Amino acid sequence: xxLLSSAQKSVLELLPGADKLGYDERTGAHRLTGxxxxxxxxxxxxxxxxxxxxxxNEVRAYGNVHITKEDINxxxxxxxxxxxxxxxxxxxHVRARDSEYKLTTxxxxxxxxxxxxxxxxxxxxxxxxxNEVLTSRVGYFYPESKSFFFSGxxxxxxDDLSMTTDTLQYTYSxxxxxxxxxxxxxxxxxxxxxxxxxxxxVTEEGSLIRNAEIYQESKTIKGDTLxxxxxxxxxxxxxxxxxxxxxxxxEFYGDYAxxxxxxxxxxxxxxxxxxxxxxxxxxxxxxxxxxxxxDSFGKALFVRGSKNVKIFHNDIQAQCDSLHFEEPKGIMxxxxxxxxxxxxxxxKGKKMTVYIVDSLIDHIFIEENATAxxxxxxxxxxxxxxxxxxxxxxxxxxxxxxxxxGTAKTIFFPQDEEKTDTSFTVKRLGMNRLYxxxxxxxxxxxxxxxxxYFDKPDGVFYPMNKINxxxxxxxxxxxxxxxxxxxxxxxxx
Length: 493
Fold this sequence. Notes:
Structural class: mainly beta
Helix content: under 10%
CATH superfamily of the domain at 313-493: Lipopolysaccharide (LPS) transport protein A like domain
Shape: rod-shaped
Radius of gyration: 40 Å
CATH architecture of the domain at 313-493: Sandwich
CATH class of the domain at 313-493: Mainly Beta
Strand content: over 45%
Largest sheet: 35 strands, antiparallel
């Protein structure tokens, strides 16, 4: 039988089953006890006992409370519901569930107008159709839109995925989580950190923002923002990007980066820097853009550098406009005004091809306007070699021989050692200038120790006091000490 409130349009329809029905005129309460079933404002309610206040449109239910509407079910020990505000509060062993999710908590507030539930003292949401489990201190859920909002020690778990954060918004229809505050995501062998972003629990794609980090077995990538696309085998980094592959002993830095596991490459641009550790030594390569290609087994195939390439090694430094290094072959090609510094030597040309054996330079082939200049006596003099082409041979990253072809020239200052009882004195004898079509020059610590020519040379020797300063330098002489980096940090500034 329906119970009507004369002041309101709300109707409480009592269903068969109640053992007792009473009315308290003083409080205006209809008291129902024993297997109470009724419909109120479209909600079907079950409980052991209930009080209905028709003047205020309030319902209080006690014992085994169950409320159902469409596919939404609420369970609790006791309940208060206002028909005017359409707000409810549930206490004790609270459970809410629909066809896909189940919520358990101790206390729950529910707003029927907004279709919003809130718990404030800890709760757990579990998926009925999957292994998803989510716990938090505070939670908001919207059954109609299938969306959730959580804060305070939020933990999400699903099969091999776990997530912890301060604040989390979960849109079930899109299977997407949005998080705010320090966040940790673990899926299989991948671990991610950030302070803000989103992550799709099905596609595994995500955008990690602020102090973002991704760890994958032997690889690590960090940046201001990281776009993670594992099913495409790709990660994209923006702002202060750092990437390391421990199997290759290589690190990359840049403003923007793409790392593709599918296509086995890494691309960096904007203050790009590559750092490779070889035989307990480190080589640094800086450029506007760097591209690193690996084979299907993860071994390096080649590195390309474009625009303003600079290289630093403790023994060797270099610069050029662009570079291509095929690591398996040990061949590095340098284009457009390359310079290599080795000990006290400076080598230049239009193009250089560097041949590397066991991480050391074996020899360098220099094309067009090739020069090798060696500083001696702290810059007072320079031993010089020049020609159309040159092959410079190195030992322990030091120039020891130079084969020059095509209008070959050399200018050098031979020395003699005068021995006394207590010391050796080095004395410059003069300046030798030799011209030939082909020359071979032997060197030791920048000093010319021998010259072999293959046709009749044109040569002249000047004593030190007779040197013609106009002939003291080759025609295209350049010495660039200010371009040579002294530390690896100088190549990035």
